[in-house]
Amino acid sequence: MAVKSVIDTVSEMIYKGDPKIRRYATGIVVHLVKTHEIRGKLVELKILIPLLQVIKTDSSKSRENCCGIICALAFEQTNRVTMVQIYDVINPLVSILYISSPQESTFISATLWGLSFAKHVRHEMIIDFDVVSYLVNIIRNSVVPEALEYAIQTLQNLSVLEDTRVLLVNDKLVVEAVTESILKFINERNEMNILYLESLCGILQNLSITKENRVPMIRDKGILPIIRKILSARHFGEVQSIGCDIIKNLSFAKENRPYIQQDEAIFDLLIRLAKGYDTDSLKEKSFSVLRNFPVKKERKKDLISIFQEREKEKRKDFDNNNNNN
Predict the structure, then answer these.
(1) Per-position DSSP letters for 209-243, written without gaps between them
(2) Which of 124, 147, 213, 302 has the CA that lies 20 to 30 A from 19?
(3) Residues 262-287, mean pLDDT to the nearest whole number
(4) CA 103, 109, 114: angle at the middle one, nearest 5?
(5) In 10 A of CB 101, how many CB atoms?
(6) CA-closest candidate to residue 90, choices 137, 42, 130, 143
(7) pLDDT tens across 205-259, in order?
(8) How far is 250 from 255, CA to CA, in rounded Å?
(9) In this model, does residue 305 exceed pLDDT 80?
(10) Tens digits of per-residue pLDDT, 146-173?
(11) Which helix (H) or strand (E) holds 40?
């Protein structure tokens, strides 16, 4: 009861107070929202109504506070569906995205990420709220690293479900924006980019799982050049591993195999990975891709040597295990 009384009072201050009082009132909620128990009650106590009103009409520090509060509420699992389906929080937030401060931009991107964990609203986020176009814009243009990271991770969450994967590939900008960013971050050779790259490559990996996407990804989206770039990114081993998964998924579509087979550079890279000094997991993945294709005469010697080396390693492991026992 005490919490309800406080929230009702603060809501009234946010609604009707002058700018200074509104700033203090939203500041109070900023502190309240840090408590897990209260965070779960704020949405049902209708705090979102005055917060969204401020976002629509204010451009002061109060608006930044409101963005931060809504962001915190989005990370409370029980709030997510209600926030999207009852209070329509997405539209007011994305409407100020292009005029927001760096901190507001980060809060908005983080809110979308938090909401995207609710699988029941992912389809709505794409179809009803056109979230993807905003995410693509952030990925392409944001100069705020935190906002960029949240936008990429949101898109990765949206690519997890079967029906949303098809929607994302059908969107003319998604694969293009993802591949552009992968190329940019690989070329920068900055180890700090590894999280961006893993998530971006993870998006392509998710999209390639769906049967309907496999042919369009090669025929219409032309992603083989970017796969070559991923497989050659020696300073990002985990990214190379994801690249093997992508090409393996795409090769399950018979229509894609002639395109892949004609790409000599991809096969050379896979052979190098299978023969190289990388992790056993990466060698195994690259070898498993090679096994899906007929062996050309000039590559047969390489594949035989890889197979012999693998057998030698297996025998060595077997002998070591026996000795230890």
Answers:
(1) HSHHHHHHHHHTS--HHHHHHHHT-TT-HHHHHHH
(2) 147
(3) 80
(4) 120
(5) 15
(6) 130
(7) 999 999 999 999 999 999 999 999 999 988 777 899 999 999 999 999 999 999 9
(8) 9
(9) no
(10) 999 999 999 999 999 998 999 999 998 9
(11) helix 36-42
**8 Å CB contact between 161 and 123:** yes
Phi/psi at 189 (nearest 5 deg)? 50, 40
Determine which helix (DSSP H) or strand (DSSP E) holds 62, and give its type and residue range. Answer: helix 61-74
Asked if 135 and 151 touch (Cβ cutoff 8 Å), the reply is yes
In terms of C-beta distances under 8 Å and separation of at least 24 residues, what long-range contacts does 128-131 make, across chains too? 129/84, 129/90, 129/91, 129/94, 131/90, 131/94, 131/158
Name, in order, each residue with C-beta under 8 angstroms of 23's C-beta and a sequence gap of 6 or more. Answer: 60, 61, 62, 65
User: Tokens 């096969």 — which residue?
Assistant: 267
Q: How far apart are CA 234 and CA 65, in angstroms?
A: 43
Q: Which amino acid is at 283?
A: K
Tokens standing for 127? 């179809």
Residue 66 tokens, joined: 């409101």
Tokens of 157: 């969450």
Nearest to 244 by CA among 259, 258, 225, 227: 227
**pTM of the predicted model as reported, rounded to 2 decimal places:** 0.87
Among all chains, which residue has been given the structure tokens 């591993």? Answer: 241
The secondary structure element, H or E, covering residue 155 is: helix 145-158
